[in-house]
Amino acid sequence: MNDAPRILRAALAGLTPAPSHDATRPPELTQIYTPAGHEAALDPERVMVIGGRGTGKSFWSASLLDERTRAFVARSYPRLRLDRCDVSLGFAGVDTGSGGAPNSEILDELILRDGYAPIKVWRAVILRGLSRFIELDIPASLGGRDGLVAWVDADAERAQEMTRRADEAILSQGRQVLVIFDALDRLGDNWEVIRERTKALLQTALAMQTYRAIKPKIFMRIDQAEDRGLVVFPDASKLLSKGARVDLNWECRDLYGLLFTLLANDPDAQLPFANLVQRTTGVDLGDIDRMGLPAPLKDQESKQEAIFIALAGHYMGSSRTKGRTYTWLYKHLADGLGRVSPRSFLEVLRSAANYRGMPADSPLVINHKGIQAGIQAASDLRLQHLQEDYRWIETILEPLADLRVPCPEDDIRTRWREAETVPALSESSKSYLEPIEFSESGEDRLTALLRALIRIGVAERRADGRINVPDIYRVAAKLLRRGGVRPNR
Between the CA of residue 429 and those of 143, 357, 423, what are the distances in Å? Predict the structure, then answer.
């Protein structure tokens, strides 16, 4: 009896789509996959990294901060010379202990209570980060009358000269220091405060582009990066324009590369998976612990598809008219901006492996019915995770239940008016951040709501002007689409 399908099915069923990371908790080495397209995101010379929910902003922040994971990643991206970098945390929205990065409460004390300009605070935070790796004659504490922020504020020229000397000293050692800023939506309690502090951080990073060894690195949400109020200072485009920033995306081949890495690193599944790979592609997995996934399994979609066909079959039904499993899965997980979250991808496969309708004697590991059921589970999970960042999303989507999409924009507006969605949001926003579009001027609230959904990828505007909600959100939100995956009831 061939136990390989059962063993591989158990490995998929045991997949645990990574929870939301924060920059202080590094991932396990067996969880790390290094897509070629993410090299720019980790490049010390690229300041701004922009990504949606679950695309890896905090994952990569944590990987850079931890010496062990950084060394592991450095082997995949040798051009970046990450093995010659030291990394400090400038902000991550969490408590980091004595001498660590400030949280929003400390920022409130320094800026609102003590009256220091945010740009002075960020200058001090960067100096403090440098002091972990090079001796600097600066105050040890950040706040207080004799603290580092007061020291920076008292003499800007002295602070700049200290930073310049630090840059030269670090450079003379053949090293660089990255100072990482993540979770910027936690900089304050409302968008006006967050915007002011973010803008000051960007101005600081822009001013420091002449330094050769000191490199601020900023990970930011899409809606913040495209906030109209953020780019009102000179040369902001040097950081936030499409050519300057790095957009963190996962291509189809990247997600399958991640899956194959997880299977190859699973102690029980490693041997049967290696045999399957050898049989279907002729590729030897080799020493994956040291060398990582072989290049053909990362770059050649034909070989990836051959492996997935062995796992899940050719088609999403009885013939090619139903779609190829390899491409169908990616297509139905994409949001309105064409992005797919690794968590959603892994959740589909986990759910498919747990699908009870799978014949016990099937030579496949999962089948198309399990994949379809997995889309429903992934949609629920994706919307749940989205609510952690955008707590208003449920209030916006709930009135749209049973609406058939694509639909005219007015159909959505009518639902929101009938449900009094805007007043409900205004009341709820006392306890959480409202859509960032509400803090921008120049349009009515219903238009701002729709723009918010489109900007974060929950909705998309078709060429004919109609509004569509992709399956990854539509199913959980209980919207309808002819021929689409059915919502859970």
Answer: 31, 44, 10
